[in-house]
């Protein structure tokens, strides 16, 4: 069999590659390589705590607000434990719900239309769903326009993305007036009109299956459902199957002091909601196959910021290997909805067979379901913000303490870990969702979630490993990617691949 190299692989954030060995038409082994050193944690050391949200949001140009949010939570936790902070006003939490909700819709739309969605378009896979075609599809172009509207609404509170300044330890520093809230509401309503009513899912699903084209007032809904119907027809429920272990942090605040989407852990078929103490003590990082010193691993509250070891024997990634109770766990919208026991319209049951199965298809469906759930709550959060109410509690950087910020980012469970000594950052660690899903093997050789999901997968044509790419993208990794296929026969194929172009003649209008 030939060897094929795709470099670079498009439609993934950042720099990442995957090497897979194919024997007799199946992937015998896989390695997930993170090809860049981050080092943001090191930059925070010695700085005052209030600087940290601004620095850590620069980890990523797509997940900026998630890191700013997790950083403020970590600092607030540390200050509260030190006895110098009494909590964030609920009014500020509601405004954060609004911003996080708009951000999640924007981020999921990128995934469904720009990153993963084209894999199921007519241009790439001859699915007949021409509206999903990159660059020229009507659905694709509508999504781009509405993504812009969401970011315009976001900037009313937070300044220009990707460097918003609104979140700060103690709450938010924005003070929106009634006119600002009305401008945001009008933009959100515009996005609502694009998507269409959620309760029309059954009717629109049938329209998608029949390729009748979008019904009036539900073009966005038609397009996101087209992605999952096309994926189901490509048998995406049968590949990219993970071990069925999940981990989710909660997200979005409710009036009772809890979280709208609860956290949870699924292991050995059982769902449970561990206490915060159990959660914090169960998370570790393994550096056996990472280009970091061994001391950079262990518990994130105790390990120092990452210490590079680029010549380390046996290492193949700049990512560490996070583990929960010593095991790799999958995170993302699928984990979140399983933890919440949610399967809206039974889409995963009907299209993905088992709502708890870890598969390429169910990851896509869960993003669509979460997209609709959050859209439906966003209007209520907007109405709940009191423009005359408190938005920030008193804050001081002058304390000594340690804490952790756990949040559900668009891509999955995110955690920031901090230790402050005499008003300066003494230690900082970040464990991102992509580390959980795409990290390297651990000391015992146990694969990461992506490596597990790829091993055993059939590759009928090494020149076109499309289902490998679909699986990698189903995790919505925040990394750039290059995929290398090592064939068992030792042959090598090198050639230029033309990127897909929008097709013609599709029938879904």
TrEMBL record:
Fe cation binds at residues 63, 481. Ni(2+) binds at residues 60, 63, 478. Its cofactor is Fe cation; Ni(2+). Signal peptide: none annotated. Mg(2+) binds at residues 41, 430, 484. It is found in: Cell envelope. It comes from the Archaea. It holds the Pfam family NiFeSe_Hases. This is Ni,Fe-hydrogenase I large subunit. The lineage of its organism: Archaea, Methanobacteriati, Methanobacteriota, Stenosarchaea group, Halobacteria. The gene is hyaB2.
């Amino acid at each position: 069999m030939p060897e094929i190299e795709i470099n670079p692989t498009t439609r993934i954030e950042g720099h990442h590659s995957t090497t897979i060995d194919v024997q007799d038409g199946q992937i015998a082994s896989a390695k997930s390589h993170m090809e860049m050193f981050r080092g943001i944690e090191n930059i925070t050391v010695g700085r005052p705590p209030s600087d940290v949200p601004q620095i850590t949001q620069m980890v990523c140009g797509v997940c900026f607000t998630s890191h700013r949010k997790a950083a403020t939570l970590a600092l607030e936790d540390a200050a509260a434990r030190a006895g110098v902070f009494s909590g964030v006003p609920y009014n500020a939490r509601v405004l954060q719900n609004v911003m996080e909700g708009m951000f999640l819709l924007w981020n999921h739309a990128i995934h469904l239309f720009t990153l993963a969605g084209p894999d199921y378009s007519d241009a790439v896979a001859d699915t007949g769903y021409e509206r999903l075609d990159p660059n020229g599809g009507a659905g694709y172009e509508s999504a781009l326009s509405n993504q812009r509207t969401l970011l315009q609404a976001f900037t009313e509170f937070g300044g220009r993305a990707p460097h918003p300044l609104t979140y700060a330890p103690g709450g938010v520093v924005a003070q929106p007036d009634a006119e600002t809230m009305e401008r945001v509401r009008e933009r959100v309503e515009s996005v609502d009109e694009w998507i269409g009513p959620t309760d029309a899912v059954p009717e629109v699903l049938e329209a998608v299956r029949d390729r009748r084209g979008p019904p009036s007032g539900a073009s966005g809904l038609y397009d996101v459902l087209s992605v999952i119907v096309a994926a189901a027809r490509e048998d995406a429920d049968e590949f990219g199957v993970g071990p069925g272990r999940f981990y989710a942090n909660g997200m979005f605040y409710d009036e009772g002091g809890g979280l709208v989407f609860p956290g949870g852990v699924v292991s050995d078929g059982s769902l449970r909601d561990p206490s915060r103490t159990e959660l914090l003590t169960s998370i570790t990082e393994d550096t056996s196959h990472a280009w970091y010193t061994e001391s950079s691993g262990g518990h994130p509250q105790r390990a120092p910021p990452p210490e590079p070891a680029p010549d380390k024997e046996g290492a193949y990634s700049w990512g560490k290997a996070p583990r929960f109770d010593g095991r790799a766990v999958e995170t993302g919208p699928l984990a979140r909805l399983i933890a919440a026991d949610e399967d809206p319209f039974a889409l995963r049951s009907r299209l993905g067979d088992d709502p708890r199965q870890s598969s390429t298809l169910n990851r896509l469906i869960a993003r669509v379901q979460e997209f609709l759930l959050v859209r439906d709550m966003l209007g209520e959060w907007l109405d709940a913000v009191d423009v005359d109410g408190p938005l920030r509690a008193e804050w001081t950087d002058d304390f000594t303490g340690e804490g952790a910020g756990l949040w559900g980012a668009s891509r999955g469970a995110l955690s920031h870990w901090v230790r402050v000594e005499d008003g300066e950052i003494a230690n900082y660690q970040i464990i991102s969702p992509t580390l959980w899903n795409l990290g390297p093997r651990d000391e015992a050789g146990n694969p990461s979630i992506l490596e597990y999901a790829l091993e055993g997968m059939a590759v009928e044509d090494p020149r076109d490993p499309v289902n490998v790419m679909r699986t990698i993208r189903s995790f919505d990794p925040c990394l750039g990617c290059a995929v290398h296929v090592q064939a068992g026969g030792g042959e090598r194929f090198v050639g230029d691949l033309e990127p897909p172009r929008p097709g013609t003649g599709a029938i879904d209008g």
